[in-house]
Amino acid sequence: MSVNALVTPISSATLPNFKSGNASAATYAVPPAKLSEQWVQWRKDDPGQVLTVTRPIEEEAVFDRLVALKMATADFAVHMNSERRAGLFKGLEGLLDPDEWVFTDKMPSVASFKTLMRMIIHNHVARRPSLGATTDGKIIASWRSGEDRLVVEAFASDEVRWVLSRHVDGQRVSAAGTSPVAFLRTALLPYAPEAWFG
Amino acid sequence: MADLKTIADEEHVLRFVQYSLCEKNDAGEPIGFYPQAFSLKVQPDGSLEEYLSAGWVEYYEGVDHPTRVKAAIAGFGKRERPKVGANARFALGNVGRIREACRSHSQTVRISHEPLPNFESHASIRQFNSASSELLDLLAADAWAEMHKPIKKGGST
After folding, report:
1. Interface contact B88-A91, CB threshold 8 A
2. How far apart are CA B63 and CA B11, in angstroms?
3. B77 — contact with chain A (CB < 8 Å)?
4. Residue B140 DSSP code
5. Where are the domains of chain A?
6. Closest Cα of chain B to A11: distance in Å?
7. Do A172 and B26 touch (CB under 8 A)?
8. Which tens digit of pLDDT belongs to each residue from A89-112?
9. Do B142 and A172 count as a contact with CB atoms less than 8 A apart?
10. Which candidate, A19, A94, A89, places its Cα nearest to that of A57?
11. How many CB atoms are located within 10 Å of the residue B122 CB?
12. A98: phi then psi, degrees, rounded to nearest 5
Protein backbone atom coordinates (compact mmCIF):
# COMPACT_ATOMS: atom_id res chain seq x y z
CA MET A 1 0.00 0.00 0.00
CA SER A 2 1.38 3.37 -0.93
CA VAL A 3 1.58 6.24 1.54
CA ASN A 4 -0.94 8.21 -0.52
CA ALA A 5 -3.57 5.54 0.00
CA LEU A 6 -3.48 6.26 3.74
CA VAL A 7 -4.30 9.92 3.29
CA THR A 8 -7.99 10.78 3.44
CA PRO A 9 -8.84 13.40 0.82
CA ILE A 10 -10.23 16.55 2.45
CA SER A 11 -12.20 19.19 0.62
CA SER A 12 -11.32 22.72 1.72
CA ALA A 13 -15.02 23.63 1.46
CA THR A 14 -15.78 21.37 4.43
CA LEU A 15 -13.04 22.79 6.65
CA PRO A 16 -13.91 25.52 9.13
CA ASN A 17 -12.00 28.77 9.09
CA PHE A 18 -10.27 29.80 12.30
CA LYS A 19 -8.91 32.90 13.94
CA SER A 20 -5.30 33.85 14.29
CA GLY A 21 -5.43 33.99 18.09
CA ASN A 22 -7.29 37.23 18.79
CA ALA A 23 -10.23 37.51 21.18
CA SER A 24 -13.61 36.28 19.97
CA ALA A 25 -15.89 38.86 18.39
CA ALA A 26 -18.55 37.72 20.82
CA THR A 27 -16.58 39.30 23.69
CA TYR A 28 -17.17 42.81 22.34
CA ALA A 29 -20.15 44.53 23.93
CA VAL A 30 -20.44 47.37 21.41
CA PRO A 31 -20.97 47.11 17.66
CA PRO A 32 -17.66 48.60 16.46
CA ALA A 33 -18.28 48.39 12.76
CA LYS A 34 -14.96 50.03 11.95
CA LEU A 35 -12.74 47.62 13.88
CA SER A 36 -11.28 44.57 12.27
CA GLU A 37 -9.28 41.47 13.07
CA GLN A 38 -6.88 39.29 11.21
CA TRP A 39 -8.21 35.84 10.35
CA VAL A 40 -6.55 32.80 8.93
CA GLN A 41 -8.61 31.07 6.27
CA TRP A 42 -8.13 27.86 4.32
CA ARG A 43 -7.43 28.53 0.67
CA LYS A 44 -10.19 27.03 -1.42
CA ASP A 45 -8.03 26.93 -4.53
CA ASP A 46 -5.09 25.28 -2.78
CA PRO A 47 -6.14 22.77 -0.09
CA GLY A 48 -3.83 22.64 2.89
CA GLN A 49 -2.62 26.23 2.44
CA VAL A 50 -3.90 29.23 4.36
CA LEU A 51 -4.17 32.95 3.80
CA THR A 52 -4.75 35.87 6.13
CA VAL A 53 -7.87 38.01 5.71
CA THR A 54 -9.35 40.98 7.55
CA ARG A 55 -12.99 41.08 8.58
CA PRO A 56 -15.03 43.78 10.35
CA ILE A 57 -16.13 42.73 13.85
CA GLU A 58 -19.82 42.47 12.89
CA GLU A 59 -18.95 40.07 10.12
CA GLU A 60 -16.81 38.05 12.48
CA ALA A 61 -19.72 37.56 14.85
CA VAL A 62 -21.86 36.29 11.98
CA PHE A 63 -19.04 34.07 10.82
CA ASP A 64 -18.56 32.70 14.35
CA ARG A 65 -22.23 31.77 14.44
CA LEU A 66 -22.06 30.13 11.04
CA VAL A 67 -19.19 27.97 12.27
CA ALA A 68 -21.08 27.15 15.49
CA LEU A 69 -24.15 26.06 13.49
CA LYS A 70 -22.04 23.95 11.15
CA MET A 71 -20.29 22.33 14.08
CA ALA A 72 -23.66 21.54 15.66
CA THR A 73 -24.39 19.25 12.73
CA ALA A 74 -21.63 16.97 14.06
CA ASP A 75 -24.09 15.79 16.73
CA PHE A 76 -26.23 14.40 13.92
CA ALA A 77 -23.47 13.22 11.60
CA VAL A 78 -24.52 9.60 11.76
CA HIS A 79 -27.88 10.55 10.24
CA MET A 80 -26.52 12.63 7.35
CA ASN A 81 -24.59 11.73 4.26
CA SER A 82 -22.09 14.19 2.80
CA GLU A 83 -24.51 15.41 0.12
CA ARG A 84 -27.14 16.25 2.70
CA ARG A 85 -24.63 17.98 4.92
CA ALA A 86 -23.27 20.00 1.99
CA GLY A 87 -26.81 21.15 1.10
CA LEU A 88 -27.44 22.20 4.66
CA PHE A 89 -24.15 24.06 4.86
CA LYS A 90 -24.96 25.87 1.63
CA GLY A 91 -28.27 27.00 3.08
CA LEU A 92 -26.58 28.22 6.27
CA GLU A 93 -23.88 30.06 4.33
CA GLY A 94 -26.53 31.89 2.31
CA LEU A 95 -28.52 32.71 5.42
CA LEU A 96 -25.51 34.11 7.28
CA ASP A 97 -23.94 35.88 4.33
CA PRO A 98 -22.54 39.13 5.82
CA ASP A 99 -23.60 41.00 2.68
CA GLU A 100 -27.22 40.12 3.40
CA TRP A 101 -27.43 39.71 7.16
CA VAL A 102 -29.09 42.56 9.07
CA PHE A 103 -26.69 43.01 11.96
CA THR A 104 -29.32 44.43 14.31
CA ASP A 105 -31.13 41.09 14.22
CA LYS A 106 -30.48 38.37 16.73
CA MET A 107 -28.54 35.61 15.02
CA PRO A 108 -30.12 32.15 14.78
CA SER A 109 -29.37 30.20 17.94
CA VAL A 110 -27.62 26.85 17.99
CA ALA A 111 -30.43 25.49 20.19
CA SER A 112 -33.03 26.44 17.57
CA PHE A 113 -30.93 24.86 14.83
CA LYS A 114 -30.58 21.64 16.83
CA THR A 115 -34.35 21.54 17.22
CA LEU A 116 -34.64 21.72 13.43
CA MET A 117 -32.08 18.94 13.03
CA ARG A 118 -33.97 16.72 15.46
CA MET A 119 -37.21 17.55 13.64
CA ILE A 120 -35.70 16.47 10.34
CA ILE A 121 -34.33 13.23 11.76
CA HIS A 122 -37.34 12.23 13.88
CA ASN A 123 -39.74 12.84 11.01
CA HIS A 124 -37.59 11.17 8.35
CA VAL A 125 -37.52 14.32 6.23
CA ALA A 126 -35.77 13.43 2.99
CA ARG A 127 -36.06 16.73 1.15
CA ARG A 128 -33.76 19.66 1.72
CA PRO A 129 -35.51 22.67 3.28
CA SER A 130 -35.15 26.33 2.40
CA LEU A 131 -33.64 28.04 5.46
CA GLY A 132 -34.47 31.38 6.99
CA ALA A 133 -34.38 33.09 10.37
CA THR A 134 -36.68 35.23 12.45
CA THR A 135 -35.39 38.58 13.67
CA ASP A 136 -35.30 37.15 17.21
CA GLY A 137 -33.00 34.24 16.47
CA LYS A 138 -35.14 31.27 15.49
CA ILE A 139 -34.42 29.12 12.46
CA ILE A 140 -37.16 28.90 9.82
CA ALA A 141 -37.37 25.97 7.42
CA SER A 142 -39.80 25.49 4.57
CA TRP A 143 -40.71 22.93 1.96
CA ARG A 144 -42.70 23.57 -1.19
CA SER A 145 -44.63 21.28 -3.48
CA GLY A 146 -46.10 23.30 -6.34
CA GLU A 147 -48.23 25.98 -4.72
CA ASP A 148 -48.42 24.08 -1.43
CA ARG A 149 -46.03 25.14 1.30
CA LEU A 150 -45.07 24.12 4.83
CA VAL A 151 -43.18 26.60 7.01
CA VAL A 152 -41.69 25.53 10.33
CA GLU A 153 -40.20 27.81 13.00
CA ALA A 154 -37.88 25.99 15.41
CA PHE A 155 -37.94 26.96 19.08
CA ALA A 156 -35.01 26.21 21.35
CA SER A 157 -37.06 23.69 23.31
CA ASP A 158 -37.57 20.83 20.83
CA GLU A 159 -40.85 22.34 19.75
CA VAL A 160 -41.83 23.80 16.39
CA ARG A 161 -44.52 26.19 15.22
CA TRP A 162 -45.82 25.32 11.79
CA VAL A 163 -48.12 26.82 9.21
CA LEU A 164 -49.13 25.23 5.92
CA SER A 165 -51.24 25.91 2.90
CA ARG A 166 -52.57 23.37 0.41
CA HIS A 167 -54.64 23.90 -2.69
CA VAL A 168 -57.48 21.45 -3.18
CA ASP A 169 -59.80 21.85 -6.19
CA GLY A 170 -58.74 25.48 -6.54
CA GLN A 171 -59.43 26.24 -2.89
CA ARG A 172 -56.68 27.32 -0.54
CA VAL A 173 -56.71 25.38 2.73
CA SER A 174 -54.49 26.51 5.59
CA ALA A 175 -53.68 25.26 9.05
CA ALA A 176 -51.25 26.14 11.81
CA GLY A 177 -50.13 24.76 15.13
CA THR A 178 -47.28 23.88 17.43
CA SER A 179 -45.87 20.44 18.03
CA PRO A 180 -43.02 18.66 19.77
CA VAL A 181 -40.52 17.74 17.07
CA ALA A 182 -41.08 14.02 17.50
CA PHE A 183 -44.76 14.27 16.58
CA LEU A 184 -44.74 16.77 13.73
CA ARG A 185 -45.37 14.27 10.95
CA THR A 186 -48.25 12.82 12.93
CA ALA A 187 -49.71 16.29 13.49
CA LEU A 188 -49.49 16.96 9.75
CA LEU A 189 -51.02 13.64 8.64
CA PRO A 190 -54.36 15.17 7.54
CA TYR A 191 -52.40 17.34 5.09
CA ALA A 192 -50.29 14.59 3.48
CA PRO A 193 -46.85 15.72 4.70
CA GLU A 194 -45.08 13.35 2.29
CA ALA A 195 -45.58 16.07 -0.35
CA TRP A 196 -43.03 18.16 1.56
CA PHE A 197 -40.97 15.65 3.50
CA GLY A 198 -40.69 12.95 0.86
CA MET B 1 -48.85 60.88 15.91
CA ALA B 2 -49.04 63.03 12.78
CA ASP B 3 -52.25 63.32 10.74
CA LEU B 4 -52.80 60.09 8.87
CA LYS B 5 -54.20 59.85 5.37
CA THR B 6 -56.05 56.62 4.75
CA ILE B 7 -54.76 54.77 1.71
CA ALA B 8 -57.48 53.67 -0.74
CA ASP B 9 -58.25 50.03 -1.51
CA GLU B 10 -57.10 50.29 -5.12
CA GLU B 11 -53.65 51.54 -4.12
CA HIS B 12 -50.53 49.61 -3.14
CA VAL B 13 -47.96 49.28 -0.40
CA LEU B 14 -44.46 47.88 -0.55
CA ARG B 15 -42.65 46.13 2.32
CA PHE B 16 -38.93 45.49 2.60
CA VAL B 17 -38.14 41.82 3.21
CA GLN B 18 -34.58 40.96 4.13
CA TYR B 19 -33.00 37.83 2.63
CA SER B 20 -33.31 35.84 5.87
CA LEU B 21 -37.10 36.20 5.61
CA CYS B 22 -37.29 35.15 1.96
CA GLU B 23 -38.09 31.60 0.91
CA LYS B 24 -35.34 30.33 -1.44
CA ASN B 25 -34.93 27.69 -4.10
CA ASP B 26 -32.04 25.20 -4.04
CA ALA B 27 -29.84 27.76 -5.78
CA GLY B 28 -30.48 30.24 -2.96
CA GLU B 29 -32.61 32.59 -5.07
CA PRO B 30 -35.65 34.16 -3.37
CA ILE B 31 -38.90 32.60 -4.58
CA GLY B 32 -41.31 33.82 -1.93
CA PHE B 33 -41.75 35.38 1.48
CA TYR B 34 -41.94 33.69 4.85
CA PRO B 35 -44.99 34.50 6.99
CA GLN B 36 -42.61 35.94 9.59
CA ALA B 37 -41.76 38.75 7.14
CA PHE B 38 -45.12 40.28 8.07
CA SER B 39 -44.81 39.83 11.80
CA LEU B 40 -44.54 42.76 14.19
CA LYS B 41 -40.99 42.79 15.53
CA VAL B 42 -40.01 42.66 19.17
CA GLN B 43 -38.34 45.92 20.18
CA PRO B 44 -35.17 46.06 22.31
CA ASP B 45 -37.34 46.85 25.37
CA GLY B 46 -39.37 43.67 24.80
CA SER B 47 -42.48 45.39 23.47
CA LEU B 48 -43.93 44.74 20.03
CA GLU B 49 -43.82 47.25 17.19
CA GLU B 50 -46.97 49.37 17.14
CA TYR B 51 -47.53 48.92 13.45
CA LEU B 52 -46.25 47.24 10.31
CA SER B 53 -44.10 49.53 8.16
CA ALA B 54 -44.32 49.82 4.39
CA GLY B 55 -43.93 52.30 1.57
CA TRP B 56 -46.95 53.84 -0.19
CA VAL B 57 -46.53 53.37 -3.93
CA GLU B 58 -49.09 55.97 -5.11
CA TYR B 59 -47.30 58.65 -3.09
CA TYR B 60 -45.31 59.07 -6.28
CA GLU B 61 -47.69 60.81 -8.67
CA GLY B 62 -47.74 61.50 -12.38
CA VAL B 63 -46.01 58.34 -13.56
CA ASP B 64 -47.13 54.83 -14.50
CA HIS B 65 -47.38 51.97 -12.00
CA PRO B 66 -44.00 50.29 -12.71
CA THR B 67 -42.23 53.63 -12.36
CA ARG B 68 -44.06 54.31 -9.10
CA VAL B 69 -42.97 50.93 -7.75
CA LYS B 70 -39.36 51.73 -8.63
CA ALA B 71 -39.66 55.14 -6.97
CA ALA B 72 -41.17 53.54 -3.87
CA ILE B 73 -38.28 51.05 -3.72
CA ALA B 74 -35.82 53.91 -4.04
CA GLY B 75 -37.68 55.66 -1.20
CA PHE B 76 -36.51 52.94 1.19
CA GLY B 77 -32.88 53.72 0.45
CA LYS B 78 -32.95 56.95 2.41
CA ARG B 79 -33.51 55.16 5.73
CA GLU B 80 -30.52 54.38 7.90
CA ARG B 81 -31.49 50.75 8.57
CA PRO B 82 -31.89 48.04 7.65
CA LYS B 83 -29.44 47.79 4.80
CA VAL B 84 -30.81 46.44 1.55
CA GLY B 85 -28.76 43.44 0.39
CA ALA B 86 -28.74 42.39 -3.26
CA ASN B 87 -30.76 39.27 -2.44
CA ALA B 88 -33.33 41.06 -0.31
CA ARG B 89 -36.71 41.66 -1.90
CA PHE B 90 -39.68 43.97 -1.69
CA ALA B 91 -43.22 42.66 -1.28
CA LEU B 92 -45.89 44.57 -3.19
CA GLY B 93 -49.50 44.26 -2.11
CA ASN B 94 -52.83 45.75 -3.08
CA VAL B 95 -54.28 47.60 -0.09
CA GLY B 96 -57.79 46.25 -0.63
CA ARG B 97 -56.57 42.67 -0.71
CA ILE B 98 -54.49 43.20 2.41
CA ARG B 99 -57.51 44.64 4.22
CA GLU B 100 -59.64 41.73 2.99
CA ALA B 101 -57.07 39.16 4.17
CA CYS B 102 -57.01 40.79 7.60
CA ARG B 103 -60.82 40.91 7.72
CA SER B 104 -60.91 37.17 7.01
CA HIS B 105 -59.08 36.80 10.32
CA SER B 106 -61.38 39.24 12.12
CA GLN B 107 -59.03 42.20 11.95
CA THR B 108 -59.96 45.67 10.73
CA VAL B 109 -56.60 47.25 10.01
CA ARG B 110 -55.91 50.90 9.34
CA ILE B 111 -53.56 51.45 6.40
CA SER B 112 -52.38 55.05 6.21
CA HIS B 113 -49.73 57.35 4.82
CA GLU B 114 -47.60 58.25 7.81
CA PRO B 115 -44.46 60.07 6.61
CA LEU B 116 -41.24 59.71 8.58
CA PRO B 117 -38.06 61.78 8.41
CA ASN B 118 -36.03 60.45 5.44
CA PHE B 119 -38.96 58.24 4.42
CA GLU B 120 -41.67 60.50 3.04
CA SER B 121 -43.67 57.70 1.42
CA HIS B 122 -43.84 55.65 4.62
CA ALA B 123 -47.13 53.88 5.29
CA SER B 124 -48.31 52.19 8.46
CA ILE B 125 -50.59 49.22 8.98
CA ARG B 126 -52.10 49.82 12.42
CA GLN B 127 -54.52 47.79 14.52
CA PHE B 128 -52.72 44.77 13.12
CA ASN B 129 -52.23 41.68 15.28
CA SER B 130 -49.54 39.37 13.97
CA ALA B 131 -50.26 36.50 16.36
CA SER B 132 -52.10 34.47 13.71
CA SER B 133 -49.63 32.40 11.68
CA GLU B 134 -52.36 31.66 9.14
CA LEU B 135 -52.99 35.36 8.50
CA LEU B 136 -49.25 35.99 8.09
CA ASP B 137 -49.04 33.05 5.67
CA LEU B 138 -52.00 34.38 3.71
CA LEU B 139 -50.29 37.76 3.37
CA ALA B 140 -46.94 36.21 2.46
CA ALA B 141 -48.27 33.73 -0.08
CA ASP B 142 -51.23 35.56 -1.56
CA ALA B 143 -52.36 39.04 -0.55
CA TRP B 144 -48.97 40.73 -0.23
CA ALA B 145 -46.82 38.42 -2.31
CA GLU B 146 -45.70 40.21 -5.48
CA MET B 147 -41.93 40.10 -5.44
CA HIS B 148 -39.67 42.96 -6.58
CA LYS B 149 -35.90 43.20 -6.61
CA PRO B 150 -33.92 46.03 -5.03
CA ILE B 151 -32.61 48.72 -7.34
CA LYS B 152 -28.99 48.16 -8.30
CA LYS B 153 -26.51 50.97 -8.33
CA GLY B 154 -27.14 52.74 -11.58
CA GLY B 155 -30.90 52.41 -11.34
CA SER B 156 -31.97 48.99 -12.69
CA THR B 157 -33.87 46.39 -10.61
Report:
1. no
2. 14
3. no
4. I
5. 1-55, 58-197
6. 21
7. no
8. 999 999 999 999 998 899 999 999
9. yes
10. A19
11. 21
12. -60, -25
The string of DSSP codes covering chain A is --GGGGSPP--GGGSPPEESSPPPGGG--S--TT-EEEEEEE-SSSTT-EEEEEEEHHHHHHHHHHHHHHHHGGGGGGG--HHHHHHHHHHHHHHT-TTT--TTSBPPPHHHHHHHHHHHHHTT--SPPEEEE-TBS-EEEEEEETTEEEEEEE-TTSEEEEEEEEEETTEEEEEEEEEEGGGHHHHHGGG-THHHH-
ipTM of this complex prediction, to 2 decimal places: 0.92
**pLDDT tens by residue, B3-62:** 689 999 999 999 999 999 999 999 999 999 999 999 999 888 889 999 999 999 999 998
Residue type at B90?
A: F
Chain A residue set in contact with B, beta carbons under 8 Å? 87, 90-91, 94-95, 97, 99-102, 104-105, 128, 130-136, 140, 142, 144, 149, 151, 153, 161-165, 172, 174-176
